[in-house]
Write a structure and sequence with these properties.
With about 675 residues, the chain is mostly beta strands. The chain has one domain: Maltoporin, Chain A (Beta Barrel), CATH 2.40.170. It is about 0% helix and about 60% strand. It is built from 3 helices and 42 strands. The chain has a 22-stranded antiparallel β-barrel. A 5-stranded mixed β-sheet has the order 3-8-9-6-7. It has a two-stranded antiparallel ribbon with strand order 1-2. Strand 20 and strand 21 form a beta hairpin. The relative contact order is 0.14.
Length: about 675
């Protein structure tokens, strides 16, 4: 492994921070992605929280722009916006075929968008919560590696009107508006937020002489209402419509930003979601019902050869194209009962149901010399998850709280396709946690946890898949973790955790190319091929140097490895997992003047990492530098920002295969992250 050029900063980052905005006391940051709302000082887990002010400092439009500063979090750039995430090296890289089976849970408010995370636009978002480690009690089969939750701004019973406008390089422009206020009398309130954002997607198609083949066209619309009802009851309602009508022309034969595709694709996702969150007291108990619905129409299409007739000349004709249209619908119902006394034992128990339906329509076509290629596959997938769970926490002495949780879950699914394949797997799984939180002092707390997470089994589709490899079973993850959180004299806050993971029946995704002359003849396989383990640390620091200056830094350092894994003739025993860099770091310095002027510098980076298990190609280490400066008055602000100021060329996904006739040599093809972008953002607010 090549060391990072900034590895000499590790002593500082050992106590680094992923969130510079946490100048308030730690226990004032509330985590809602747990069964009971907990503060940071109460939660026995490694957590990163990005509040609204932090997000405004590090990102412009989408969660993608804030990910580099979150320890142990990676993403696979096989789509125009991140859909697939990896926490501590565990998570999917894509879903080209087969059924959804996520390892990282992803919620927007209370709605499950796991493995379709493109909906994470940041306009009018209040907080991002990232819980690392198995969430076996809270979220079950969809959160083997952890959970990401996006919290949008809640309505307040005061009038609010806001406008936000941005312009920047890459023809970027965005306009958003927020209105809200009191609903009737009392604390009931409503809020509406709408934004449209567009850009060219940092690519130019030289063959078609166009700059919009990779364009981003992103609409965000959200409506929220909070109703205070009789008898202490409350009802929260939310509706969202996210329409990302993006192009997809991201890969170039020379691994640059100038593409040559004659048939550019699309990477579009239109999602509608709704939820109702009802709470009501019943004597000494608190009852809560969370009902959600989501429907997503997704198109993923791409030019399979990334070229055109002129690219291949006498080696052609050579032309391939793939289009998949996906329709996914989910319904969920979570019913909870909680009780206990303040300062005494507290408990929660519940029943959870999730119904998922996904239909896929895949159409591939191609031509090489005199050999045409056509492929059509229609599939239908239905799954039902049913779980019962419980969690109990009780004080042990004056300063220690012990908690235990357990979740029992059954998943039944059915799959059929036009090739005649049928699968109906069913899995019974369990997970849970034993944890301890000790209040060391009024300023510091220690925690430790032993967790068991799980992920359902599944199947591999395709007539070329050997029958003995058609099915794979559930995976289980044991996690032992401990940490220290504290506030120290001089405005210093730290958050340090260490972990050791053990994967049993580890699901490993691989691929191989049946026909070296056809880039669309990949066969994707998942097997319970190995065991695995990983150890590391995650750290956070926020230091208020004085009333003007603040320093923040973050670090994750880990080592993952397969145990006893062979893939064909390759021995991968001891090799790192895919998208699992050994080092990730961030450093931020911010300045605020009482007159309203402010500035911020962000530096983030990571070590090299493997792109996949099917080959040993790696992405090189890289660092990203972002700047922001501006002025804020009582009801308006202006910011000038620069992202990737040094114009670093860095990979977010890599494929290794033969794609260029006539010899089709295997080569590494990279999708690069966004280059330098400079822009301006104006915000206005009226009450």
């Amino acid at each position: 492994m090549r060391p990072s050029p900034l590895i000499h900063l590790w002593p500082l980052m050992l106590v680094g921070a992923a969130s510079a905005q946490q100048t308030v006391k730690l226990e004032e940051v509330v985590i809602t992605a747990t069964l009971r709302e907990l503060t940071l000082s109460e939660i026995p887990a490694s957590v990163t929280v990005l509040g609204a002010s932090e997000l405004a400092g590090v990102a412009v439009q989408h969660l993608e722009e804030a990910l580099a500063g979150i320890p142990s979090l990676s993403w696979a750039g096989a789509s125009s916006r991140p859909r697939y995430f990896q926490l501590r090296g565990i998570g999917e890289l894509e879903q080209y075929q087969g059924a959804p089976n996520p390892s990282v849970g992803f919620l927007v408010d209370e709605i499950d968008f796991s493995s379709i995370g493109m909906v994470a636009t940041l306009f009018d978002v209040e907080q991002i919560e990232v819980l690392r480690g198995a969430q076996g009690t809270r979220f079950g089969a969809n959160a083997l590696a952890g959970l990401i939750k996006v919290r949008t701004r809640a309505p307040e019973p005061v009038p609010e009107r806001a406008l936000e406008a941005s312009i920047g390089g890459d023809a970027f422009n965005a306009l958003g508006a927020v209105v809200g206020g009191q609903l009737g009398e009392g604390a009931s309130a409503w809020r509406v937020a709408v934004q449209q954002a567009n850009s060219d997607g940092f690519r130019r198609n030289a063959f078609l002489d166009r700059s919009d083949t990779n364009a981003r066209d992103e609409l965000t619309a959200r409506v929220r209402a909070h109703l205070n009802l009789d008898g202490g009851r409350s009802l929260d309602l939310g509706f969202m419509h996210i329409d990302l009508a993006n192009g997809y022309d991201a890969f170039a034969l020379d691994n640059g930003y100038q593409t040559m595709a004659d048939r550019p694709g699309r990477d579009a996702q239109r999602s509608f979601g709704a939820y109702a969150d009802l709470t009501w007291p019943a004597g000494s108990l608190l009852l809560r019902s969370i009902s959600t619905y989501a429907n997503s129409s997704i198109e993923s299409s791409f030019d399979g050869d990334w070229g055109n007739p002129q690219s291949w000349g006498s080696d052609g004709p050579y032309d391939f194209f793939s289009r998949t249209q996906r329709e996914r619908t989910t319904w969920s119902q979570d019913f909870r009962v909680s009780g206990g006394e303040q300062g005494g034992a507290q408990w929660v128990t519940g029943l959870y149901l999730l119904r998922l339906e996904e239909d896929n329509r895949q159409r591939d076509d191609g031509l090489y010399l005199d050999f045409p290629y056509e492929r059509a596959l229609d599939s239908s997938y239905r799954a039902l998850n049913a779980a019962v769970y419980g969690e109990l926490a009780w004080p042990v002495g004056a300063a220690t709280v012990f908690s235990t949780g357990l979740r029992l879950e059954r998943r039944e699914s059915e799959y059929t396709d036009s090739d005649g394949l049928k699968f109906a797997p069913a899995d019974n799984m369990w997970g849970g946690q034993l944890a301890l939180v000790h209040e060391w002092s009024e300023q510091a707390s220690l925690w430790a946890a032993l967790s068991r997470g799980y992920k359902a089994g599944g199947f591999n589709i395709g007539v070329a898949v050997p029958s003995e490899r058609a099915r794979f079973g559930p995976e289980y993850l044991w996690s032992a973790e401990a940490g220290l959180r504290g506030r120290w004299p001089g405005g210093l806050q730290t958050d340090l955790s260490v972990f050791h993971l053990r994967r049993e029946s580890q699901q490993v995704s691989t691929s191989f190319q049946l026909d070296p002359q056809d880039p669309l003849t990949f066969v994707y396989l998942t097997d319970n091929a190995a065991r695995g383990r990983s150890s590391g640390l995650e750290a956070a620091l926020s230091w208020s140097l004085d009333e003007h200056w603040q320093l923040a830094a973050g670090l994750s350092a880990s080592r993952s490895e397969y145990l006893g894994y062979r893939l064909g003739e390759r021995d991968l025993d001891g090799r790192d997992w895919a998208h699992s860099p050994r080092l990730q770091y961030s450093l931020a310095i911010s300045w605020k003047h009482p007159a309203g002027f402010h500035a911020r510098v962000d530096l983030s980076g990571q070590d090299d990492f493997y792109f996949d298990a099917s080959h040993d190609q790696r992405g090189r280490p890289y660092q990203l530098l972002h700047l922001r400066a501006g002025y804020a008055a009582d009801n308006w602000s202006v910011d000038v920002w620069a992202r990737n100021l040094t114009n670093e060329r860095y990979p977010v996904r890599g494929f290794y295969f033969g794609n260029e006739p006539p010899d089709f040599p295997e080569r590494l093809y990279l999708r690069l992250g966004d280059p330098r972008q400079v822009g301006l953002t104006l915000r206005f607010k009226w009450q």
